[in-house]
Amino acid sequence: MLRVLAVSAQMSESGETVARVGSFQPSRQNVREHPTIVTCEYQVLRDDNGAPLLLHLATMGSSERASGPKMSQALQIDELRARELVELLEDAFPSIVMRRSGERPAQG
After folding, report:
1. Where in the chain are the domains?
2. Which pTM was predicted?
3. Residue 104 contacts by C-beta under 8 Å, 6 or more apart in sequence?
């Protein structure tokens, strides 16, 4: 079982919340499916040599917003957390096969 011990959050220059995930743990909240579907943009942050440092995931606000969609929340995940997330995804959705050693994920 994976556990979340820390998430460090900060406000970006444009006002959205950015959190760097420190670990994962099961939630005890009474969570339900959210009715609003948004776009999640991603970007790989790399070091000076081009090696990946973080995966940056940013949700865009609803397209129904009066001012139009803009970034609202963002998560940054390092390689260790990405490995943990892959494990969580495989546990949550057993029918998917995550890519390993260049294999393509199963299409459903």
Report:
1. 7-25+36-92
2. 0.69
3. none
